[in-house]
């Protein structure tokens, strides 16, 4: 185990109503009618978790998470890791028409709604 403290920075418009941490599980959720995560943001609704204390520049790292994707969701990012060499992100998982893709392709999982 690493010999340093982890920093979890949660950014949501209404984090007290949309974020919980129980039994080691971080959980947050959004609705399509939500406002962006900050008043000055030009993005659509979102929540972010920033994990500090790890060096993502080398080694092998694993992320595990679950997402509920309501029917009709499309062109939506569900997970991204910043710090890519050729673009801003190392990876971005997006939803397009009932499928999860890496960026816009390839499809990595189909039939994801509900």
From TrEMBL:
The keyword Signal applies. This is Alginate lyase 2 domain-containing protein. Residues 20-105 form the Alginate lyase domain. Pfam families: Alginate_lyase2 (PF08787). Keywords: Signal. Residues 1-16 form the signal peptide. InterPro entries: Alginate_lyase_2, ConA-like_dom_sf.
